[in-house]
Specification:
11% of the residues lie in helices and 29% in strands. By secondary structure, the protein is mainly beta. The chain has a single domain, classed as Immunoglobulins (Immunoglobulin-like, Sandwich), CATH 2.60.40. The strands form two sheets. Strands 3, 4, 5, 7 and 8 form a five-stranded antiparallel beta sheet that branches. A three-stranded antiparallel beta sheet has the order 1-2-6, with no helix packed on it. α1 packs across α2. The longest helix is centred in the N-terminal third of the chain and has 9 residues. The radius of gyration is 16 Å and the shape is globular.
Length: 150
């Protein structure tokens, strides 16, 4: 993740960028006070507006601990951007997941992803979505989605 922060930072190191971007989500001692405000990713690629739907009829074989994310692409987007991969992280019960690949690309306009596996019945799940290019050098800023427990 540090490499990504260093790519996002232009006039400072990645650590300084992260602190600057997340001052409103962190306490003075560095503890996370507002997970819905944390920025785990930044970049220059345009990000579409993402919508979360937890009431989508998902096949019973998949299960109920999933959320569908959908978006519309700008009609003038470069063709190369349509192959950008949708990545995400989760935060629940004070634990961040690793960065995960959803397996979906920007041209698909939706994805179904699992919520965090940690204690799904008692806490909010924060999801952080962003797109990355094929070379892992360009990113969108992340979009935060908060999902209530079932």
């Amino acid at each position: 993740m540090n490499q990504i922060w260093n790519l996002a930072a232009q006039d400072m190191n990645g650590y300084a960028w992260f602190i600057k971007k997340n001052m409103n989500a962190l306490h003075i001692d560095g503890t996370l006070t507002n997970p819905s405000l944390i920025q785990v990713m930044d970049g220059s690629l345009a990000v579409p507006q993402l919508k979360a739907d937890t009431d989508v009829p998902i096949p019973i074989a998949i299960g109920t601990d999933f959320v569908q994310i959908s978006w519309e692409n700008d009609p003038h987007i470069k063709k190369a951007r349509l192959s950008d991969s949708l990545m995400y992280m989760t935060y629940r019960n004070h634990i961040f997941s690793e960065i995960m690949d959803t397996g979906y690309t920007r041209n698909q306009k939706f994805c179904i992803v699992p919520k965090s596996q940690a204690d799904a019945q008692t806490s909010l799940c924060y999801l952080y979505f962003f797109f990355k290019n094929d070379h892992d050098t360009l990113f969108t800023p992340n979009v935060n989605v908060t999902v209530n427990p079932d």
